[in-house]
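sorry for the late reply, my laptop died twice this morning and i had to redo everyting from scratch. anyway the thing you sent over, i finally got around to it. pasting the sequence first so we're on the same page, its 574 residues, then the predicted structure underneath. double check i copied it right bc i was rushing
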Amino acid sequence: MSPGRFFMITVAALIALLLHQQPSSAADKQKPGMVITAEEIRAMNVMKISDLMNRIPGVKAGETSVSIRGSSNVKVLLDGRSINDPTSRSGAVKWSMISLDTIEKIEVYKGSGSTSYGDNTGGGVIVITTKTADRFGGTAGGYFGNNGQGNVILNLQGRKNNLSANFSAGHETYEGFTVNDDKARNRLSGRVDYRFTPEFSLFLSGEYNDEKKGLRGYPERRTPNSRKEFDASSFLFGQKYGAVTGRTWYSLSKTVSTDPDKDLYASLKVLKAGQKINAPFVLPWLGTIDGGTGYEWQEASGSNFSTAREERAWVFAQKELEWEESPWSCLLGIRANYYSKFRNTLNPEVKVGYAKKNYDVAFTANRSSNLPTFRQRYYESSVTRPNPALRMEEAVNYVLSLSVRPFSVFTLDASVFYRNIRDRITYVRRADNTGRYENFGKVTYRGVETSLKWTPFSWIDIAPLYTYLHALNEETGYWLPAKPFHTVSTDIVCRPFRDFSLRVSAKYTGKVYIRSDNSESIPSYTVVDARADYRSGPMGFYIDIDNLLNDQYLYVDGYDAPPREWIVGMNYNF
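ok and here's the structure:
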């Protein structure tokens, strides 16, 4: 896509925003699967957004990963722009790009969202909205701990009349618990908002992230000289006029991997630019329909392949049906996708709900398209061969959920889910110890998840979670690797007196296979974490201990977990 073409698309989008205004859309009224507000985030007393995600039923997050109900096809949006790493193997997420103090709310759609949010949403969608400054102030803080842990953060915000601005910066270091396990991260972000009228506003935001880390390898195969560097910069121009919203984005991401022991040097750079508009419109007999359209251009280049360019475009529409004084509701949606490198798709979605005062039931069904990454198709190293012919996955998802609230201090949520994946993208290893990503097999995910929130007394909260996951390759009959059958966790928060809280978290992860032929497995393990917080006016102090019992265990992907780690930190709000 030429710069002139992209400029024309952006100008056309802005003109549409200025000329088009309709009543509030159905999507504005639709209740998301889960909403976590800024106040709830503060009450959780977590350090990182990945820690927060791990307290949501069915969600598992690492420093650069996220999955919902066993699927890593999860799209994460920050103010309407995807922050999934385009240089990764499976759409990894750079959580370090986000400061918890800048978040206004987080919306989690588990097993849904394919109509509004498009590709790579087989597992679900996580939508993060940052704050608009309403006063002058900020947060400064940091922590230190064993194994060389260190962190410094600074968040500033200010407002004058119709102009507001936010600035955030952070630096994190870690020496690691074993050889070549160190990392260093830097983050800078800023946002400027201007409200012309109550109906018309614009904002411009930008982020820069830099990360250097060692890759320690598996316990039995250490890689003491393997290194990785990641750099990413992005800009987002947001527009809002009444119920019409627009987003224009530009991002550049680069990953460099080196290992002199294997004579390896591999780089991958991905450039993205795009524009989307969401706006309600009115049709005869159907009334107000929420819809949107968009276009994105991508370019990838690397040390082992020539430049690859791709385009995609989409249009979607959805309609929420509600009946006056009826507990029933229905959401119907359809999305058409155009791809320059893949076959075009048409993905429907339907959600039927029944809500009463003390309980509600919902059923969701949709189809999603999960695209292979540039890294899976073009990246080449000493153990990975490229496969430019890799096809997209197609997934059909079904979810039946129930929420019961018999008392104000007691809430029970339960879900049954089923996912059918065709042309699943799998890394296939060959006899010469090399491999490549291929479309292989039909895979099904089915399971149950339950969560309970109970406040037996005003000074204590108890929140147990349980997930059962049945992930099977239907063609080979083998269980999928790195997918535990059972996961159980419990959070207990005590507030024995004002301004002090103590949290104890225990998580059990069941047996899991680490090879696709089920010839090797990792035993179950239980980890206990603890955290104490105390606040005195604008000052906050905390102590966080991970792996409190100092157990030795392996993560589900076969990497060894660190022994007991602790940090001591403070925050100052002004």
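The first strand starts at residue 34 and ends at 37.
thats about all i looked at so far, will dig more tmrw
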